[in-house]
C-alpha cells in the first residue's frame, strides 16, 4: 500500500476506501507486514478498510482498527467484497484495490467498474 498511497486521494465529500487483500509471498514476515499495512492505512486517513482473505487479512483489519481506521469490513472472498462495496459506495468515494496478484483482487475492480482489469 505504501507504493500506492498517492492513489487514495479523496474526492470532494467522498471517503477513502482501501480494499486490501493478503500479501502471499512474505514468509516469516507476513503477520507483521499485514499489521504494518493496517497501521499505515490509519496514518494515511483511510475511512474504511475492506480486508479480503483469511488470517492475514484479519491481522491487517485488527491492526487498522486499533490504529484508528473508523470502519472495517473483513470478508472471505472477492465476490463478497464486491457485493459489499456495491452496496455502500457513494459517488465521490475513492477506492484503492491492492494485494498480491495471487489474491486476484482485480476481480473486485472489474465488478465495480464493469471494465476489464489486467491486474498490472
Automatic annotation (TrEMBL):
Molecular function in Gene Ontology: acid-amino acid ligase activity; ATP binding
InterPro entries in the cross-refs: Mur_ligase_C, Mur_ligase_C_dom_sf, MurCDEF_CellWall_CoF430Synth
Keyword Lipid biosynthesis: no
Keywords: ATP-binding, Ligase, Nucleotide-binding
One Pfam family hit: Mur_ligase_C
Residues in Mur ligase C-terminal domain copies: 12-101
PANTHER family assigned to the protein according to its UniProt record, in alphabetical order: UDP-N-ACETYLMURAMOYL-TRIPEPTIDE--D-ALANYL-D-ALANINE LIGASE (PTHR43024:SF1)
Protein name: Mur ligase C-terminal domain-containing protein
Amino acid at each position: 500500500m505504501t507504493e500506492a498511497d498517492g492513489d487514495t486521494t479523496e474526492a470532494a465529500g467522498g471517503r477513502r476506501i482501501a480494499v486490501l487483500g493478503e500479501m502471499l509471498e512474505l514468509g516469516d514476515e507476513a503477520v507483521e507486514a499485514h499489521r504494518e499495512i493496517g497501521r499505515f492505512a490509519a496514518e494515511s486517513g483511510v475511512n474504511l478498510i475492506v480486508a479480503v482473505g483469511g488470517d492475514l487479512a484479519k491481522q491487517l483489519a485488527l491492526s487498522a482498527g486499533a490504529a484508528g481506521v473508523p470502519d472495517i469490513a473483513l470478508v472471505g472472498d472477492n465476490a463478497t467484497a464486491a457485493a459489499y462495496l456495491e452496496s455502500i459506495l457513494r459517488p465521490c468515494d475513492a477506492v484503492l484495490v491492492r494485494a498480491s496478484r495471487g489474491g486476484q483482487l482485480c476481480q473486485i475492480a472489474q465488478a465495480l467498474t464493469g471494465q476489464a482489469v489486467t491486474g498490472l
